[in-house]
Design a protein that fits this description.
Strand content of chain A: 25-35%
Distance between the termini of chain A: 10 Å
Radius of gyration of chain A: 20 Å
CATH superfamily of the largest domain in chain A: Medium-chain alcohol dehydrogenases, catalytic domain
Oligomer: homodimer
Number of domains of chain A: 2
CATH topology of the largest domain in chain A: Quinone Oxidoreductase, Chain A, domain 1
Organism (chains A, B): Serinibacter arcticus
Helix content of chain A: 25-40%
CATH architecture of the largest domain in chain A: Alpha-Beta Complex
Largest sheet of chain A: 7 strands, mixed
Pfam family, one (chains A, B): ADH_N
Protein name (chains A, B): IMP dehydrogenase
CATH class of the largest domain in chain A: Alpha Beta
Shape of chain A: globular
Largest interface: A-B, 38 and 38 residues
Cofactor (chains A, B): Zn(2+)
Number of strands of chain A: 19
Keywords (chains A, B): Metal-binding, Oxidoreductase, Zinc
């Protein structure tokens, strides 16, 4: 089959690889019908060292079950399934706590031997991981369903962990697909004021349609001042940080109000950061977030896509065949595309 | 009057200073009847630079109202009052949010022109700040009442911000007075497993009486291993970090379970710390805490001391007159005393 491999920063190729096979009795193998490129794929696209064997790419997928392990009970050949970016048994203590990305039998497709930007995918812990899409679901809904694999529910995770609820004032840092998803999720959770910090007008326009009440294009000290101006000098209750770089972190503690929360879902591209009296401690600020527990939210979110309550698939503004995925990376890196859907 | 001043690290003296006076119509002046030395006073005791004019010390007090500003309505001359370590108007937006240490009219006695290790104290925003002790309260309860000025309610703040509740597994790092208070508070909030990390046996014995179910004397990697052993390899739901030094922070993220919370009330002696994928983010760990909103908890805690439900004053193991306060600092710094009550 064909799969996407990255060999070094900027070097993405579609190559022939062996088909994945059932390795454990809890696996299924799916034929991937919908995949996409994630903002986090751009991190290795910027800095991956020479990797002669290539790194398998992609962690978001919808597909049709083609092979099934002996112990799989909940899935059948022919089922169309959404596959979250991390697999999980959905029964362990951490899954029961709602932190499926820390499943004791879990793992991440990102960098795994079988990843999603490919014609086929091996799904470990398939009973726990994959969620069936009802037969007969309209094709037009599939972009939105695909966002339940990662991007929309990552925005939702930020909002949930951040404690967004009715009446809360929220700022979202980042106008990428995760940031826009966080806007939509915050609106669904009842936030009344949603300030989107971003400067790409086509994106912030979509953010307004998703529920942003204000857009702040300024960054750094100017951006902080603008948010304080909007919030009567108080700052926001919740910051949803959907970038992952240090300036976004610094902006976060500049705009959060005393007792407020910074919820991060942008994968941090730093390990150390300010957390002392001058940044978090003095204002009793809470810092939370992490890899989204997509699986924990998926079954509740599915009907809201199917009935049209939310349409998070609008973050896809381009679609390309698998063979042109290198162009998808280029478009997203150049910010010429917000998010590219891939049809293997 | 006599007041305590620190002139440099290790140099604490009781000197004659002018009596405090009403400066704003919202002030009262109290005669301090009970004060004490805080673990956080030991930070300048270790590292205060030469300060020729001296730094006023002390931020915990009970006293009797002697003078009263024209706008004070809730207090009368002769009232015995508990004064939290920070003053606050108790009406502003942050006070209403329960973050009284961020009051827009607030401030900290620590380092202020009038501080509590003295015969008299000026209390700003007195209506909002001071809480009256019922007349006729038995003298034996005053050590416990004094802990409502800071230490017990700082432990309580850690537990509340950390989300301690029935069924949660909690670790407390630090066997100082704040750590032991955090143990007592966690037990009051219903934690079933409370692991106290400390190595001073007299203190950890008191911790057991306060509700600790386990004591771990080891530190660093050994301490982390011991906590994981107690928790079936999972780690704890909540870490209450009552030290403020980097090794305690590192220990915290080593023992917290996925999705768990680290709540800090030890004033951090660092600004930058690990918060990236390897420490907090990867496990969806929440970091919270800050200066305790003592005032927000004080009225609810008062009856629990008066009726004997809790006896947090047991953290005081010595009592000295104001004139001997330098010895109190020495005793606490040498860990010969847990916490010293001062009678001006």
């Amino acid at each position: 089959m064909r799969a996407t491999l990255m060999y070094k920063a900027g070097d993405v190729r579609v190559v022939e690889v062996p088909d994945p096979e059932i390795e454990a009795p809890t696996d299924v193998v799916i034929r991937v019908t919908h995949a996409c490129v994630c903002g986090s794929d751009l991190h290795p696209y910027h800095d991956l060292e020479d990797t002669p064997e290539g790194r398998r790419m992609g962690h978001e997928a919808i597909g049709v079950v083609e092979q099934i392990g002996a112990d799989v009970e909940r899935l059948a050949i022919g089922d169309t399934v959404i596959v979250p970016f991390a697999w999980s048994d959905n029964t362990c203590v951490h899954c029961r706590d709602g932190i499926t990305t820390s499943c004791v039998h879990g793992g991440f497709f990102d960098g795994a031997p079988s990843a999603t930007q490919a014609e086929k995918l091996r799904v470990p812990q398939a009973d726990g991981t994959a969620v069936v899409v009802p037969a007969g679901t309209d094709e037009s809904l599939f972009p939105s369903l695909l966002t339940l694999s990662d991007v929309y529910l990552t925005g939702h995770h930020a909002a949930v962990r951040g404690g967004v609820e009715a009446g809360k004032t929220v700022a979202v840092i980042g106008d990428g697909a995760v940031g826009l998803s966080a806007v939509l999720a915050a609106a669904q959770l009842g936030a009344t004021t949603i300030i989107l910090m971003g400067r790409h007008e086509a994106r912030t326009d979509l953010g307004r349609e998703f529920g942003a009440t204000h857009v702040v294009a300024e960054r750094g000290e100017e951006g902080i001042a603008a948010v304080l101006e909007i919030t009567d000098g108080l700052g926001v209750h919740v910051v949803l940080e959907a970038v992952g770089h240090m300036p976004a972190y610094e902006q976060s503690y500049g705009i959060v109000r005393p007792g407020g929360t910074i919820s991060r879902v942008g994968v941090p591209q730093y390990e150390d950061a300010p957390v002392g009296f001058a940044s978090l401690f003095g204002k009793n600020v809470t810092l939370t977030g992490g890899p989204a527990a997509v699986r924990a939210y998926l079954e509740a979110a599915l009907p809201t896509v199917l009935d049209g309550t939310i349409d998070p698939g609008r973050v896809f503004d381009r679609e390309l065949p698998l063979g042109e995925i290198a162009e998808a990376y280029r478009l997203m890196d150049a910010r010429e595309a917000l998010k590219v859907l891939i049809r293997p």
